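Incident review: delayed structure delivery

Summary: a single-chain prediction request sat in the queue longer than the usual turnaround. Root cause was a stuck worker, restarted by the on-call engineer. No data loss occurred. The affected request and its eventual output are reproduced below so the record is complete for anyone auditing the incident later.

Affected input:
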Amino acid sequence: MEAFFKEIKEKIKEAVIEVFPKITKELGEEKPYTVAFVTDSDYVTLWLGVNSYEHLKKTDAKYGKDGDSATTKWDPDEWGYSDGDSQLVMVSDELSDKMESVIDHINSQTDNLSFSQLCKLVEDSGFPRLFIETVTSAFQELIQLNVFGFNPDEVTFFISMSDDKRAYDIENNSAKTLNSKKVYEEFLKRKSSYKV
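Output delivered after worker restart:
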């Protein structure tokens, strides 16, 4: 599985390098404050989101939100810019196929698994861990290559998981790895809508 994720890492980097100039063009003169890779609880989708202070202000006004406790600031589903139909869609297809093969292999080895037993065996397969490690490593390299072109003291980088209680921990752990101590500590002050 390590060889598979090594290839996935390169494909993630290629996809972002190709699509990010388009996102930058869409941002125009807006001031970005965050970039995140977003996945799902099955670790098979991956997309890149970016938000700006200007888009945040419009979104929060639309929902009638004010103050940090009610803001959409750290909710990638509400952000203004994403990779759209970039090569990351193909990466997601490959991740989905690989996860399906992992599940098929598990099912061929055991009978009548409950959902929780299957989840535990998927976790034991190493797929989730390798996925997070791969996305984090690709993200680090993209930041080091200055692909995003943002001031690292003004933008927070992290990985998120939609609709899952694990999101808060994944966000915190990735933010600690991807940002300066100052940016990370500021990120930790955010209000969370996740149950932890």
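Verification: DSSP finds seven helices and four strands in the chain.
Action items: add queue-age alerting; document worker restart procedure.
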